[in-house]
Amino acid sequence: MKDLTRDSYASAEPVPAVWTGRATNRMQWLLAAAGAAFVALGVELAVASQWTSGIAPLLMSVIGCVAAGLLILYGTLAFVHVAVKVDRDAVEVRCGHMGLPRRRIPLSHVVGAEVAAKVTPRQWGGWGYRWRPEKGTAVVVRRGEGIVVTLGDGRVFTVTVDDAEAAVLAIRDGLRRGTGTGTAAKA
User: Which residues share a beta bridge with 140?
Assistant: First the structure.
Protein backbone atom coordinates (compact mmCIF):
# COMPACT_ATOMS: atom_id res chain seq x y z
CA MET A 1 0.00 0.00 0.00
CA LYS A 2 1.22 3.44 -0.86
CA ASP A 3 1.80 5.82 2.02
CA LEU A 4 0.63 9.37 1.55
CA THR A 5 2.26 11.54 4.17
CA ARG A 6 1.12 14.97 5.27
CA ASP A 7 4.09 16.42 3.37
CA SER A 8 2.85 14.97 0.09
CA TYR A 9 -0.65 16.13 0.98
CA ALA A 10 0.52 19.69 1.70
CA SER A 11 2.21 19.97 -1.68
CA ALA A 12 -0.77 18.58 -3.57
CA GLU A 13 -3.37 20.68 -5.33
CA PRO A 14 -6.41 21.75 -3.29
CA VAL A 15 -8.75 18.87 -2.49
CA PRO A 16 -12.24 19.35 -4.00
CA ALA A 17 -15.27 19.44 -1.68
CA VAL A 18 -16.69 16.40 -3.47
CA TRP A 19 -14.41 13.86 -5.15
CA THR A 20 -15.85 11.33 -7.58
CA GLY A 21 -14.15 8.48 -9.34
CA ARG A 22 -14.96 5.20 -10.98
CA ALA A 23 -13.49 2.00 -12.30
CA THR A 24 -14.79 -0.03 -15.23
CA ASN A 25 -14.32 -3.57 -16.46
CA ARG A 26 -15.27 -3.99 -20.09
CA MET A 27 -14.44 -7.71 -20.09
CA GLN A 28 -17.58 -8.43 -18.09
CA TRP A 29 -19.68 -7.44 -21.09
CA LEU A 30 -18.66 -10.81 -22.56
CA LEU A 31 -20.18 -12.57 -19.56
CA ALA A 32 -23.30 -10.41 -19.89
CA ALA A 33 -23.59 -11.56 -23.51
CA ALA A 34 -23.40 -15.16 -22.33
CA GLY A 35 -26.20 -14.48 -19.85
CA ALA A 36 -28.33 -12.95 -22.60
CA ALA A 37 -27.65 -16.03 -24.74
CA PHE A 38 -28.94 -18.30 -21.95
CA VAL A 39 -32.12 -16.23 -21.67
CA ALA A 40 -32.57 -16.35 -25.45
CA LEU A 41 -32.06 -20.12 -25.42
CA GLY A 42 -34.71 -20.49 -22.72
CA VAL A 43 -37.16 -18.41 -24.73
CA GLU A 44 -36.35 -20.36 -27.89
CA LEU A 45 -36.95 -23.65 -26.08
CA ALA A 46 -40.28 -22.41 -24.74
CA VAL A 47 -41.53 -21.13 -28.09
CA ALA A 48 -40.20 -23.46 -30.73
CA SER A 49 -39.56 -26.82 -29.10
CA GLN A 50 -41.52 -29.96 -29.88
CA TRP A 51 -40.32 -32.21 -27.13
CA THR A 52 -42.09 -35.51 -27.14
CA SER A 53 -40.74 -36.66 -23.79
CA GLY A 54 -43.22 -34.55 -21.82
CA ILE A 55 -43.77 -31.13 -20.37
CA ALA A 56 -41.63 -31.57 -17.20
CA PRO A 57 -38.24 -31.80 -18.97
CA LEU A 58 -39.18 -28.91 -21.24
CA LEU A 59 -40.29 -26.77 -18.31
CA MET A 60 -37.12 -27.56 -16.34
CA SER A 61 -34.96 -26.68 -19.35
CA VAL A 62 -36.74 -23.39 -19.99
CA ILE A 63 -36.72 -22.32 -16.34
CA GLY A 64 -33.09 -23.40 -15.92
CA CYS A 65 -31.87 -21.48 -18.96
CA VAL A 66 -33.81 -18.32 -18.13
CA ALA A 67 -32.82 -18.40 -14.43
CA ALA A 68 -29.14 -19.01 -15.20
CA GLY A 69 -29.18 -16.26 -17.81
CA LEU A 70 -30.79 -13.72 -15.49
CA LEU A 71 -28.36 -14.56 -12.68
CA ILE A 72 -25.38 -14.15 -15.01
CA LEU A 73 -26.79 -10.90 -16.40
CA TYR A 74 -27.40 -9.36 -12.98
CA GLY A 75 -24.12 -10.63 -11.57
CA THR A 76 -22.12 -9.13 -14.39
CA LEU A 77 -24.04 -5.92 -15.07
CA ALA A 78 -24.06 -5.08 -11.36
CA PHE A 79 -20.26 -5.08 -11.38
CA VAL A 80 -19.34 -3.70 -14.80
CA HIS A 81 -18.35 -0.49 -13.04
CA VAL A 82 -18.16 1.05 -9.60
CA ALA A 83 -18.61 4.72 -8.73
CA VAL A 84 -17.04 6.22 -5.61
CA LYS A 85 -17.98 9.58 -4.12
CA VAL A 86 -16.12 11.20 -1.23
CA ASP A 87 -17.61 14.30 0.36
CA ARG A 88 -17.18 15.93 3.76
CA ASP A 89 -19.63 13.48 5.35
CA ALA A 90 -19.04 10.05 3.83
CA VAL A 91 -17.47 7.67 1.35
CA GLU A 92 -20.18 6.28 -0.91
CA VAL A 93 -19.71 3.30 -3.23
CA ARG A 94 -22.28 2.37 -5.89
CA CYS A 95 -22.02 -0.60 -8.22
CA GLY A 96 -23.41 -1.08 -11.69
CA HIS A 97 -25.91 0.93 -13.65
CA MET A 98 -28.59 0.94 -10.95
CA GLY A 99 -26.17 1.74 -8.15
CA LEU A 100 -26.85 -1.55 -6.39
CA PRO A 101 -25.35 -2.81 -4.22
CA ARG A 102 -24.26 0.37 -2.52
CA ARG A 103 -22.40 1.20 0.65
CA ARG A 104 -22.19 4.49 2.51
CA ILE A 105 -19.45 4.85 5.12
CA PRO A 106 -19.73 7.99 7.27
CA LEU A 107 -16.36 9.66 7.80
CA SER A 108 -17.15 9.60 11.51
CA HIS A 109 -16.52 5.81 11.31
CA VAL A 110 -13.21 6.13 9.41
CA VAL A 111 -9.80 6.15 11.10
CA GLY A 112 -7.61 5.99 8.01
CA ALA A 113 -7.29 5.50 4.28
CA GLU A 114 -4.47 4.17 2.13
CA VAL A 115 -3.79 3.52 -1.54
CA ALA A 116 -3.51 -0.13 -2.56
CA ALA A 117 -1.27 -0.13 -5.63
CA LYS A 118 -2.55 -3.46 -6.92
CA VAL A 119 -5.88 -5.03 -6.07
CA THR A 120 -6.69 -8.18 -8.03
CA PRO A 121 -9.76 -10.40 -8.29
CA ARG A 122 -7.50 -13.32 -7.37
CA GLN A 123 -6.78 -11.77 -3.95
CA TRP A 124 -10.50 -11.56 -3.22
CA GLY A 125 -11.82 -14.70 -4.90
CA GLY A 126 -13.26 -13.03 -7.99
CA TRP A 127 -15.05 -9.93 -9.16
CA GLY A 128 -17.88 -8.30 -7.28
CA TYR A 129 -18.75 -7.55 -3.68
CA ARG A 130 -16.48 -9.78 -1.61
CA TRP A 131 -15.84 -10.60 2.04
CA ARG A 132 -12.90 -12.49 3.45
CA PRO A 133 -12.49 -12.89 7.21
CA GLU A 134 -8.77 -12.09 7.21
CA LYS A 135 -9.01 -9.15 4.76
CA GLY A 136 -12.38 -7.47 5.27
CA THR A 137 -14.86 -6.40 2.58
CA ALA A 138 -14.12 -5.30 -0.99
CA VAL A 139 -15.73 -4.21 -4.22
CA VAL A 140 -13.50 -5.46 -7.03
CA VAL A 141 -14.46 -4.70 -10.63
CA ARG A 142 -11.02 -4.84 -12.21
CA ARG A 143 -7.33 -5.35 -11.50
CA GLY A 144 -5.41 -2.24 -10.48
CA GLU A 145 -5.23 0.51 -7.90
CA GLY A 146 -7.77 0.97 -5.17
CA ILE A 147 -8.43 2.51 -1.80
CA VAL A 148 -8.36 0.78 1.57
CA VAL A 149 -10.51 2.43 4.24
CA THR A 150 -9.95 1.41 7.86
CA LEU A 151 -12.96 1.80 10.15
CA GLY A 152 -12.98 2.59 13.86
CA ASP A 153 -14.15 -0.90 14.77
CA GLY A 154 -11.14 -2.45 13.02
CA ARG A 155 -12.94 -3.53 9.85
CA VAL A 156 -11.40 -2.78 6.46
CA PHE A 157 -13.16 -1.85 3.21
CA THR A 158 -11.33 -1.97 -0.14
CA VAL A 159 -12.61 -0.72 -3.50
CA THR A 160 -10.94 -0.56 -6.90
CA VAL A 161 -11.12 2.94 -8.34
CA ASP A 162 -9.14 5.04 -10.79
CA ASP A 163 -7.04 7.84 -9.24
CA ALA A 164 -7.09 6.20 -5.83
CA GLU A 165 -4.49 8.65 -4.54
CA ALA A 166 -6.88 11.58 -5.01
CA ALA A 167 -9.63 9.63 -3.24
CA VAL A 168 -7.37 8.94 -0.27
CA LEU A 169 -6.37 12.61 -0.13
CA ALA A 170 -10.05 13.62 -0.13
CA ILE A 171 -10.81 11.17 2.69
CA ARG A 172 -7.83 12.36 4.71
CA ASP A 173 -8.87 15.97 4.12
CA GLY A 174 -12.29 15.15 5.56
CA LEU A 175 -10.64 13.44 8.54
CA ARG A 176 -8.29 16.39 9.05
CA ARG A 177 -11.26 18.79 9.06
CA GLY A 178 -12.65 16.82 11.98
CA THR A 179 -15.57 14.99 10.37
CA GLY A 180 -13.97 11.62 11.02
CA THR A 181 -13.43 10.49 14.59
CA GLY A 182 -13.04 6.79 13.95
CA THR A 183 -15.74 5.74 16.35
CA ALA A 184 -18.69 3.66 15.35
CA ALA A 185 -22.04 5.41 15.72
CA LYS A 186 -24.53 3.84 18.07
CA ALA A 187 -27.69 2.65 16.36
Answer: 128
